[in-house]
């Protein structure tokens, strides 16, 4: 996976360019959203071609809502 890393709090969505703690919610998650245009930046569609969540795929993978893997498109 290419691209820069970013760190985000899964609770309040505070972001940082370096690994740090959100002072209210603990250690931030490391995320790699990929280069512009990467499918990881797109929301995930269900089997009917409908978006089931508005979050980008890289976030859903980081919080463990979906498994990392090839695009579902
Ligand atoms: Zn937070």
Notable features of this structure?
three-stranded antiparallel β-sheet; 73 residues; globular; 7 strands; 1 helix; mainly beta; single chain; binds zinc ion; two-stranded antiparallel ribbon
Protein described:
It is built from one helix and seven strands. The protein has one helix at 57-63; strands at 6-8, 15-16, 21-22, 26-27, 29-31, 43-45, 51-56. It starts with 5 loop residues before the first strand and ends in a 10-residue tail after the last helix. The model has no long low-confidence stretch (mean pLDDT 86). It is globular, with a radius of gyration of 13 Å. It has a three-stranded antiparallel β-sheet with strand order 2-1-5, with helices on one face. The chain has one domain (6-63). By secondary structure, it is mainly β. A hairpin with a 6-residue loop joins β1 (6-8) and β2. The protein binds zinc ion (ZN). Residues 9, 11-12, 14, 22, 24-25 line the site of zinc ion (ZN).
Main beta sheet strand tally, sense and closure = 3 strands, antiparallel
Taken from the alpha-carbon principal axes, the silhouette is globular
Q: What strand line-up does the widest sheet have?
A: 2-1-5
Radius of gyration: 13 Å
Tally the helices. Answer: 1
User: From N to C, what is the helix and strand string?
Assistant: EEEEEEEH
* Number of domains as seen in the coordinates: 1
Class derived from helix and strand content: mainly beta
Strand-residue proportion: 25-35%
Low-pLDDT runs: none
Mean pLDDT: 86
Q: Using DSSP, what is the number of strands?
A: 7
Bound molecules: zinc ion
Roughly how much helix do the residues carry, as a percent range? under 10%
């Amino acid at each position: 996976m290419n691209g820069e890393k970013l760190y985000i709090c899964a609770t309040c969505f505070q972001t940082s360019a370096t690994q740090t703690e959100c002072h209210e919610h603990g250690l931030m998650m490391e995320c790699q959203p990929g280069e512009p245009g990467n499918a990881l930046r797109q929301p995930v569609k269900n089997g009917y071609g409908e978006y089931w969540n508005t979050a980008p795929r890289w976030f859903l993978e980081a919080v463990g809502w979906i498994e990392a893997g090839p695009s579902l498109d």
